[in-house]
Design goal:
Blueprint (H helix, E strand, L loop, with lengths): L1 H8 L6 E6 L12 H9 L9 H13 L5 E6 L1
């Protein structure tokens, strides 16, 4: 969606910044089994899920960096 937005509006100096959280332990993932959580965590280099506050902390950073056509800020 970000790429499409940039392609459509980039010629009008519109930029797009995306905060892209990976797996995070939230209410949406609470229903997963322990085995499912472990399987997902085993595929994450740091071996743990992101916390919601880590994703939130990336937002002010993403808004303060100089604009570019497209910027993706991965969170864990």
């Amino acid at each position: 969606m970000t790429r499409a937005l940039t392609l459509e509006l980039g010629t009008h100096n519109v930029t797009a910044t995306v905060v892209a959280p990976g797996y995070a332990e939230t209410g949406m993932t609470a229903s997963l089994t322990d085995h499912q959580h472990e399987h997902i965590r085993s595929q994450i280099p740091v071996g743990r899920a992101a916390r919601p506050e880590e994703t939130a902390a990336a937002c002010p950073y993403a808004m303060c960096v100089p604009p570019s056509t497209v910027r993706v800020v991965p969170v864990m």
